[in-house]
Design brief:
Elements lengths: L5 E2 L2 E2 L16 E3 L2 E3 L10 E2 L20 E8 L2 E8 L4 H12 L6 E2 L2 E5 L1 E6 L12 E2 L14 E4 L11 E4 L11 E5 L1 H11 L19 E7 L2
Antiparallel strand pairs: 1-2, 3-4, 5-11, 6-7, 6-15, 7-14, 8-15, 9-10, 10-13, 12-13, 12-14
Amino acid sequence: MISFRILPALVVASLLPLAGCTPATVSGTGNGVTTTAPGSSLCRYEASGQPARAVDPPSTKDVAMTGTVGFVLNTNQGPVTITMDRSSAPCTVHSFEALAKQKFFDDTLCHRLVDSGIFVLQCGDPTGTGRGGPGYRFADEVKGSTTYRAGTVAMANAGPNTNGSQFFLVYADSELPPNYTVFGHLDEESLAVVNRIAVEGQDGSNPDGSGRPNNEARIIDVTQAQ
């Protein structure tokens, strides 16, 4: 769902099921979903499609708005630790926590590697097709100043306010429009794991030239960092 359009001197690949990609704005509404700014107590998770695995949508009560929380993607290539910032993307972090606790990400492939123009490894779809999600969508939490440097973790989407479960790990500085909600960052050891996957390249199986990593990246389970 995320097709990368050609920008001035850059091929922007897709960051979700292969289709459009243009979220923006910090507050407002789009596609029937309310966009929440940092500091707001409002998070809405609206039904959308069939879940790739049976899960309950996150509670809309008691959403933490401050502090950080860490989660470890325990992969077949090594641990990848994401430190998530609740203050900048509370609804996104809340959703990830809910899905992780329900084991939505366990035994799933990171199904897409982009290694030209931008440099990302995309994960979060139990079907491994790039078209699966949790059965709900929620609003963007973005700023016009957002950048995507190596180590950034952000949500994949198929257009404004269509976040679900898919996310991407940026393994080298990438020029992208500020349309993807950044909700975490990798430490140096975790970034090295993703680079080890990326260096083997991908199979070019997608129409935009991206594909499955040649060096399989499988999330065994997700645990909260101690």
